[in-house]
Amino acid sequence: MRLLVVSQYFWPENFRINDLVSELVARGHAVTVLTGCPNYPDGEVFADFRANPRAFDTFAGASVVRVPMLARGKGGLRLALNYFTFALSGATIGAWKLRGRRFDAIFVFEVSPVTVGLPAIVQRWLKKAPVAFWVLDLWPETLEAIGVVRSKRVLGLVAQLVRFIYRRCDLLLAQSRGFIPQIRKYSGDTEVRYFPQWAEAVHDAAEAAAAPEVPLQPGAFTIVFTGNIGDAQDFPTVIDAAERLKTSAPQVRWVIVGDGRLADWVREQVAQRGLTQQVLLPGRFPVERMPSFYRHADALLVSLKPEPIFAMTLPGKLQGYLAAGVPILAMLDGEGAQVITDAVAGVAAKAGDAQALAAAVLRLAALTPQERHAMGARGRQLGATEFDRGRQIGKLEAWLGELRHPAQAAAREARL
After folding, report:
1. Where along the chain do its domains lie?
2. What is the pLDDT of residues 262-282, one digit of tens each?
3. Rounded Cα distance, 366 and 250, in Å
């Protein structure tokens, strides 16, 4: 198939869409990616890209079409302009750059913002190609949950935008089962299917050497977190839990690998609370390095704030953690916690509860190495069945192929 992928974020930024594109190309599809200039998460365009943009015109055999946009920078206004300029540029300049190209289907990767759907809808109209939209973040619910938008009027306008986008797609894919009812509030007649994320192959830690950035500490119980250090991950509660264990369980250390909007705040809190021996922040590393940090881990931490919207979410890092074969320490409500407890692949604490998180750490630390190994093995087995990479991408291929069926094409034309 000739596929157009629309994503505001793409290589050299680290997102799962990179893995999906490379696999689709490997399966024989002709893939074109419409994206912006790499600037996540620091908010500044990558120096290597600025120096030689043409070096980033292809990726794993896919053609990469980039449009100008304002980098994220710092602050809410700059972020809003980042979202707006990509949507506008993708819909206009993107349409110009893609002129003359034909596509069998369009796939949208939506981690946030939902406005990434607007350039795809323009291409749907121009190319007469069906759109599959992967909903990985729910708007406007997430905006309200993390406090980015508090105005009910603005949230209502965002809801109207979501309704406009969803109803002009041909297939909506929900990253968790809990997302499906929320999506259907806006989707009208558009079909919604469950399509979870998977673990990229790089998350297998079996052959990785331990990261030299983390000092060896015999006798320590090491908890590793990898990924975005943001509002949704509730680091105030994580730091509170670390402080609770500072005296009662000094062998516990937390290794927080990544970056994000709260990274500076976390560093300040670690210094102010005297947690520099308990909490290590080695920085941000490419996804390929994650297994080297997992090798230090007695448990892998996944956390989200205590908000109803997050109780419906399967955090993207969960599948990678399962593949690593390390017990999971979860501070989650809802579907994510249920997956872990049902598989006995770790210990879950109630979201937003520092005392419960500290108690969960002590429960894991009290287990024997053999018991923790068995937990990790159950998690790996769950990942290999429920979240298998090959099976998930195969389902997506089949669904995109179905959208090309003449009967569905006729129905699609009637909706244009």
Report:
1. 2-198+388-415, 202-386
2. 999 999 999 999 999 999 999
3. 14
